[in-house]
Amino acid sequence: MDFLGIGLPEIVLILIVAVIVVGPKRLPEVAVQLARVIRQLRGYATDVTSQMRTEIDELTREYEQVRKELQEVRDSTSKDIESVTREVDRTVSAVDKSIREAPAIIESSAEEKPRTPPSPPKEETASDDGS
């Protein structure tokens, strides 16, 4: 049997020293006082443990709340990025289509309007009035 790492021979030795130091008459009083101190220490340890559990529970709730908020932000950001990506893809597709169609449009407009060389400007001839 070990109590706090102390075996039976050590406990007997402690009791013998206590009887010698305190005396047989005061030993019951000292034992009662020692029992009170141990009870108070246990109560203190229980209170501290309870407070620690309360604090840990509160921190856990706060952590879960922050984690949920971050998840919502992550989801919202992902949706926004997907939306922007789709819009950019549409725009790129439209531009790509326009670029592909541009040569055909240019050729068709060139065929519709035959080019006529510009006529040289007419020179005005001075009329002789005889003056």
Structural class by SSE content: mainly alpha
Mean pLDDT score = 83
Helix-strand topology string: HH
> Structurally, how many domains make up the residues?
1
Q: Tell me about the biggest sheet?
A: none
Beta-strand percent range: under 5%
Shape: rod-shaped
Overall number of strands: 0
- What helical percentage do the residues reach? over 70%
Low-pLDDT runs:
none
Q: Give me the Rg, rounded.
A: 50 Å
Distance between the termini: 150 Å
Oligomer: single chain
Continuous helix count: 2
Describe the model.
- The protein has 131 residues and is mostly helical.
- The chain has one domain (8-111).
- 77% of the residues lie in helices and 0% in strands.
- The protein has helices spanning 8-22, 27-112.
- The chain starts with 7 loop residues before the first helix and ends in a 19-residue tail after the last helix.
Keywords summarizing the entry:
131 residues; mainly alpha; 2 helices; 77% helix
Task: Explain the layout of strands and helices.
Elements: H1 8-22, H2 27-112
Brief summary:
This protein has 131 residues and is mostly helical. Helices cover 77% and strands 0% of the residues. It has one domain.
